[in-house]
Amino acid sequence: MRLARGFPIVAITGPRQAGKTTLAKMAFPDKPYLSLEDPDMRSLAESDPRGLLSRFPKGAVLDEAQRTPQLFSYLQTHVDADARPGKFVLTGSQQFGLLSGISQSLAGRVGLVQLLPFSMGELIGAKRLTGELDELLFRGQYPPLYDRDVRPGDWFAGYMTTYIERDVRQLINVRDLSFFQRFVKMCAARTGQLLNLSSLASDCGITHNTASSWISVLEASYIIHLLRPHYRNFNKRLIKAPKLYFCDTGLAAWLMGIREPEQISFHAQRGALFETLVVTEFLKARFNQGFQSNLFFWRDSKGLEIDLVLEEGDELKPIEIKAGQTVAPDFFNGLKKWAALSNTSGRPAWLVYGGERELSSGDITTIPWKKLSRIIPVASS
């Protein structure tokens, strides 16, 4: 792992049930494992942090490290005295303060990995990727839905109950949790859309400030991702609002009330769910390589939009996303107008769609959803 060769501490954060602990154990099998969810271990970390760290001269995996925030200061002293790369591995959820603890005490000493649910490439490698697009959109990609016999609806119901009852109550003072539950469902119905906080607040019966605060909670806990608009103007007035995407299509579909994969085929939000799938695949690739997002969208005030723009140095790579299985001529309109406005005619562009065949039309390559990994950049280790 690149980060383990360059930092004395590696931190793995992400949503609940994304596989943070499993990844840490697999990537560092020789390191002792300590769960700070264990009351005895947590008590020892709180009462004698120096003694705890001295037991592991070669380092350890500290699971749910945010449960003992006072440990971070002692870790700083410990790794400053012995800064061997990859000594300690921390796992935890951002919403419980892992990143705030890192920024306050361990800045410059930690390589950060943000772990989202399985990518399509990982499912293909494990021979678990369904052959049906609607089934994938319905099931989503959380690991527990692929390593045990559980219905997605049952699992998502329990997941949301745990998330709201445990995580949200610790983050914000919500007098009536039903308002927050309604808010999350309203967000799911808006996946793939521009974020309009005023409209969202009005529909949920809450204030604009409350909606803004709750959006921050959902983003910090990796339920949603806000895709920012690209700043490059091309002599057009640009939209400034971000687009809202759920980090997992299965959770979004369940919150929309979809209970069977067959319902997705004719659902009004099928296109938005497919766009969510594609955007999050690119996001996972960045996070899995230990990088921050380099993803944007582009939209001007006249409605011309490119669904996804990859910023790689000075180069912008445009990608359009269409859920249809048949390629229609108008699928390419946005990419052609983009090329004209940005003076990038002749440069490669991509269209990702819900069909099966790979096609080429001039500078535009049409990629079927199953072959999406072919155009996702992978950095060398």
Describe, in plain words, how this protein is organized in 3D.
The protein is an alpha/beta fold. The protein folds into three domains: 3-114, P-loop containing nucleotide triphosphate hydrolases (Rossmann fold); 120-276, Winged helix-like DNA-binding domain superfamily/Winged helix DNA-binding domain (Arc Repressor Mutant, subunit A, Orthogonal Bundle), CATH 1.10.10; 298-375, no CATH class. 38% of the residues lie in helices and 17% in strands. Strands 9-10-11-12-14-13 form a six-stranded mixed beta sheet. A five-stranded parallel beta sheet has the order 2-3-4-1-5, sandwiched between helices. A three-stranded antiparallel beta sheet has the order 6-8-7. Helix 9 (177-189) packs across helix 10 (197-204), helix 9 (177-189) packs across helix 12 (249-255) and helix 10 (197-204) crosses helix 11. The longest helix is centred in the middle third of the chain and has 20 residues, at 152-171. The mean pLDDT is 90.
